[in-house]
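Quick start: what a row looks like.
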Amino acid sequence: MSRTAVIERVTGETAITVSLNLDGSGQAKAATGIGFFDHMLILLSKHGLFDLRVDARGDLEVDGHHTVEDTGIVLGQALAKALGDKAGIKRYGTAFVPMDEALAMVSLDISGRPYLVFEAVLPSERVGQFDSELTEEFLRAVCVHAGITLHVRLLAGKNTHHIIEAIFKACGRALAEATRRDERIQGVMSSKGIL
């Protein structure tokens, strides 16, 4: 059974297409017009071991908010579609990732209940053309549209680039664990029988 999805979303502010293969090898291409964000999406894919293609055009003359948030919406929708009924997946994933002085912890549950806890102070307002506060906005959009409970906690860090990179890598690794199939799991990993 193929765990893939292609989602397209066009609004008055953005036009975004996301292609996702959960059973890939971490191959990614991202073109959002925001170089640092592209880099983070590629790292998310690489550490999540899923193939990802993101093509996004947005009103960057305003700022990056619409492009980043809407990319999160479409990626969340693609995750939900690719996961289908979630049968056989491990459901939970946790990862600790260091990046030089930074250390990030991400723990998530593919629960069907969207919730984000984001406990990270980002010292610099920008990394390149990327607004640091959009890290939280992107993750919230993914959570809401994929139905994921996500906890992000920064345990150490001073450099904003390192902090955000550690968070994205940890998200990828936690997703890789949570979406992994286990033949011992009959149906879904829930006593309710549905996620």
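That is the whole record. The radius of gyration is 16 Å. The beta strands are 4-10, 14-21, 28-31, 51-58, 92-99, 102-109, 115-119, 126-127, 130-131, 149-156.
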